[in-house]
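Please predict the structure of the following assembly.
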Amino acid sequence: MRVWASTLGGFSRSRLVRRVLRDYELGLTSYGDVERTLLEASSAIIGVQVASGLAYVTDGMLDWHDIFRPFVESWRNVTPTGLLRFFDNNFFYRIPRFTGLPEPSRLVLAPRVRKFAPIAEPSGFKVVLPGPVTFALMSSNESGYSLEELSEAIANILAGEAKAAVEAGASMVQIDEPMLTDPEVSRDSAVLAAELSSRIASASGPARTILALYFDVPRADVYEELLNSKVQCLSLDLIDALERALKLTASKGFGGHCAVLGLVNSRVVHEDPIDKLSSIAGKALKDYSGEEAGLTTSTWLDLIPYDYSVRKARILGLLAEKLAHSRAWELVWRAG
Amino acid sequence: MASYTVPVKFPTTVVGSYPKMPQAEEAIKRRKAGEISEEEFLDLVKPAVRDVVNDYVWAGVDIISDGEQARDDMVVYFAERLGGYGRGDWVRVFDNVYFKKPIVTGKVEWLRPMILDHWEYATSISMGRPVKAIITGPYTMVEWSFDIHYRDKRELVLDLAKVVRRELEELVKRGAKYVQVDEPALSTRPWREDAELLKEALDIVFKGLDAKRIVHICFGRLERIIPYILDYPVDQFDLEMKNSNFRLLPFLKEYGYNKELGFGVVDVHIHQVESVKEIEEAIDKLMKTDIVGPEKTYIKPDCGLKRQQRETARLKLKNMVEAAKRAREKW
């Protein structure tokens, strides 16, 4: 089996980035300074991931205030409003308020891919999209359209984003649907998420596609529906609720998808026990017959301080090496 | 000292925090910069506490707080004053705003009173009104800190429970009649095992304490945890209701809720001032649901008012007090 690793998403901001963004907000520096700092900081983040042997890397999304914001700011008929807690974190996102169906005014991802993908060599460059169902469910819908219609409109724009990103050089497209792990999410939402993620996947051409579920473990009935998605890989957070996660993978498997295991705990700062994580990976993949598997972090790395987020990327690389070595799996350390 | 009689029906109260006064902001900055000692800091914040108490008295609130003027953050404030916590590091709260998330690096220990000074000061100027002693609870302290020492959530929560207990003992010894433990993190992880862990912790915190024992929980999935918390060793649950459009009421009814209820009637997340009529209707709604009577209902905002402008906070409280007065005549 081939095994590769990739952090799930964004990184924390370094002191330099925090400072330049603050100075820009206060009118003390120019946008040119912000861009230059972000280029340097993102390049450093990419370097950390490449040097850690991660096959797919992100630019760290250092300028994103939350997962929805860059899209909200690039679309018409939606604005960021008040703050709301982001799942069970002490972190708050701004609730997008839709007053009509969204219309894109510019692309978010493709320009980033053009800027950063060449720096990522030999790793592949991954882009991350908020899943359309999570986007719609976590927004205030004053559009006059149903949740399904709004989700569909969002998915159509995101499919365009994915297509343009892949054309610009992205080799992996990840669709984040953490709301599908909510204990109260409906099965209908899962059906919709499977359908809309399939739509984004089919627009992603030759790139690998992942549906990422984190912060908790989806209910079995929700997961069954998500297994119908046409994405290539399914990513699960195994750490937040280990027993439930292992029970789910044992009973439902990965439905023919490439398994991606969220193993490195990105919400704590202590060192992850690599031997224990190897053993958990073994349990999760016990009856797995896929030809490749991915390893990742339990969630994005932006909920811990910067230095720890860098350290966790390194630990993820070490874990992949250890697992590959101990089980005689082939370690993929560059995009194929 | 002046005496004050808390109304038997629908006493009014606050959850704790109040908009930060400029004197407090400045003092916090100077303390962080190492320019002043803890004693100087506490003294410099006192005028801010006085302003808060004056606002409460003006609005007519019965059971008040010190406005938590000294606290830059509900977790960091305590972490900086306990043994076992090391220096935190910057973690984002929203947009480009951060807090130094504390890190537990050793066994947590109570070192000295942390909230006593301002509680005593507020009590001395409250014209007899009782002042609630309010502290962040052990579960929330753990959830909103990093831990590189215990690596065992239960052990850390229970050790912090002992710390909270020690602090509250000091306050009760000095005459605190209302003690409140804030546990907003519980509703973000609405699982039975977490609720049971907090119960174990609250047994430590409250056992045999001679005061009204209150736990404040807000936002998130309150309805999911209600069945797990009804046997907590507390006299009162102080709950957010208004922001979630009172959706909790049928659940309280269904589960046979019978403790005192801190009933949130003012939304702390909106800047619009609720009218007296609107608040009165909220109280009517509770009474008609027939869960608890007027004697067991405390009228209060959903949560702390710290994110409001001072003038808005004052007006919200004023209308709340007026609505409670009218409700006393009706029920």
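Chain B has eleven helices and nine strands. The domain at 22-72+108-135+170-180+194-330 of chain B is CATH 3.20.20.210 (TIM Barrel).
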